[in-house]
Amino acid sequence: MLATAQTFTLDGISARPVRVEIDVHRGLPAFSVVGLPDVAVREARERVRTAMVNCGFEFPLRRIVANLAPASLRKAGPGLDLAMAVALLTASGQLQLPERPRLAMVGELALDGAVRPVPGVLAIAEAARERGIEAILVPAENGPEAALVGELEVVPLESLSQVPAFLAGEWAPERPLPMALGLSAGEDAPDLADLRGQRHLRFALEVAAAGGHSLLMVGPPGAGKSLAASRLPSILPPLDPQEALEVARIASACGQLGRDFGGRPFRAPHHTASSAGLLGGGNPPGPGEATFAHRGVLFLDELCEFRRDSLEALRAPLETGWVSVARAGAWRYLPCRFMLVAAANPCPCGRGESDPQCSCSPQAAQRYQAKLSGALADRIDVLAAIRQPAAEEISGPPGEPSAAVRERVTAARERQEQRLGPGRCNAEMTPGEVRGCALAEDAAALLADAYSRRRLSGRAHDRVLRLARTIADLAGGDSIEREQIAQALQLRRREAE
After folding, report:
1. Which of 5, 451, 476, 481 sits most deeply, having the most CB atoms within 10 A of its CB?
2. Cβ pair 452, 373 in contact under 8 A
C-alpha cells in the first residue's frame, strides 16, 4: 500500500517542501530511504521503528521503501521523522489521513515516541502558509515559534501517540501563544554614559546609529574603541515587527531562537575567523556572522589582524545587503543588512607614529595598515580617528546616557522612513536618491571643492552626502547646510588633527 505525507526541509535559512512517499509491500523485511537523504535522515529508520513500537503501534515486517521527493533536493536533519512515521502508519493501515491534502508535519522522534524540537520551524511554517497548507503538526516546544505565522493552524504535539486522536477529531489542542519578539530597544545593553570624554567619537556613534552607517574607529589601545562599540546597541532604535521576524527566522534556522530572544543582534567574531565564518560557506552552504548580524551590528575588533581575503569579501555585502555563497552544485543568497563597526590600531604596537614611544618602523606600520584596502575603506561611511582621553575627562562626570541619545536617533530614523519608505535608512539610499537630496548653495560649493581638492571617489562623494543627510535629520532640517557637509567631511578623516 502507498501513502504520502507533506513535510519540509531546511535549505540554508529557507524551507523547501518535501513529499514523503511510503510503500509497504511483500518481501524480505527491510526499510530503505531514497531521495538524497543525509546521515540524520537515513538514521530515521531506527528512530521511527522504535518510536512506533513504544507507542503501541505495530511495525510492519515487510519491504518498506521511503521516497523523499523531489529526489534531486538534499534532505538534511531529523525533522522528517514525524512525516515518515505518519506515512508509514497510513501505508500499513493503522492510521487514516484525512481527505484534505493541506496538512504538513515536522518533528524529530525520540525512541519513546516523544516529538522533539527541530530548528527552522518559523521558516517552515511560513513556507507552509505560502503553499496553502491549512494546518501543521509541530513539536510542542516549537509551537510558540510556529504561532508567529498567521492564517495557519498550529498543532503542538508531545508524542506520536497523539496523532491518531487529532486526525480522528477526538483531540483538538489549544493554539499556542506566539512567542514574544524583541521589538524593544537595548535598554538592557551597557549604557553609553560609561564612555567619558571622546566628544568626536560619541558624535560619530550617534550619526552612525541614526543613519545605519558603517563605522571604523582608529586609535591607540585603551582609548575606548571596544567600549564604544559595545554601547552602540543601547542607542539603536527598536526593531519593527517585520525586521524582528527576519531576525527570528535566521535565528530559528540556525537553532539559536531561544526564549530570551530579543533586540538587534550584536556579533563580534574573533580576528581568526575565515571568509566562510564571516560570510557563510560549507557544503551545503550555511550562513556566517554577516547573516547572523542581519538588522544589527557586526563588530570587528582588531580589524588589521583579520586576514585580508576575509576583509575583502565584505566589500560586496556592504553595498548590496546580500551574500552570495556558491559551492559545487549548490548556491545560496543570504541576507546581511548589518552595521559594520570596526576598531583598529594605527600600527602593530598601537601607539602610532606621532607617539615618541612607538617602536614600529614605517614599513611595519604600512604593512599593518595595508590589511585595510582603500576599496574597503571607501565603502565605510564613518572613519573616526580618536585619541586617548585626558585625565580630567576620565575622572570627570559620566557622559550623556543612552536613553537621551536613542531618543534623537529614533526621531531621525522616523524622518528617514517618511522620506524613503518603511524600514529604510540613509545608508541604504540609492545613487538617485542621494543625488536628489536638497542641498544649499554654499553646501554644494563646499562639497565640490572637497571633491576636487581631496580627490574623493564617486562613491566617497555619495557617502559624504549620506552622512550629511543623516546629520540634517538629527538636527530636524529639510535641506543639507554647509556646516553639515563640513561635519560629514570631518567624519571621513582617518587621521586625527
Report:
1. 5
2. no
Q: Around Cβ 100, how many Cβ atoms within 10 Å?
A: 8
Residues 490-494 have a mean pLDDT of: 81
C-alpha cell belonging to residue 122 = 518559523
Strand 382-385, strand 215-218: pairing: parallel
Lookup: cell for 471: 546629520
Q: Cell for 3? A: 501513502
Exposure of 321 by Cβ count < 10 A (0-12 exposed, 13-18 middle, 19+ buried)?
Answer: middle
Is the predicted pLDDT of residue 185 greater than 80, yes or no?
A: no
Torsion of CA 314, 315, 319, 321, to 10 degrees: -20
Longest CA–CA span in the chain (Å) reads 88
φ, ψ for residue 207 (rounded to 5)? -65, -45
Cβ burial, residue 27 (10 Å; 0-12/13-18/19+): exposed
Range with top average pLDDT, 32-36, 187-191, 259-263, 398-402: 32-36
Report how far apart, in Å, the C-alpha atoms of 128 and of each of 7, 11, 251 are: 9, 14, 19
Ramachandran region, residue 455 (left: φ > 0; alpha: ψ -120 to 50; beta: rest): left
The predicted model gives 228-239 an average pLDDT of 92
Q: Which residues fall within 8 angstroms of residue 21, CB to CB, at 6 or more apart?
A: 2, 3, 4, 66, 67, 68, 69, 87
User: What's the one-letter identity of residue 84?
Assistant: M
- The overall average pLDDT reported for the chain is 89
Q: Span 212-219, mean pLDDT?
A: 93
- Contact in structure between 192 and 145 (CB atoms under 8 Å): no
pTM of the model: 0.89
Angle at 132 between CA 126 and CA 133, to 5 degrees: 75
Q: Which one, of 133, 171, 164, 162, lies nearest residue 149 by Cα?
A: 133
Reply yes or no on whether the pLDDT at 496 is more than 50: no
Residue 493: burial class (beta carbons within 10 Å; 0-12, 13-18, 19+): middle
Most confident of the following: 71-75, 175-179, 313-317, 468-472:
468-472
Residues 386, 393: Cα–Cα separation, whole Å:
14
User: How far lies 16's CA from each of 84, 171, 245, 337, in Å?
Assistant: 16, 29, 19, 23
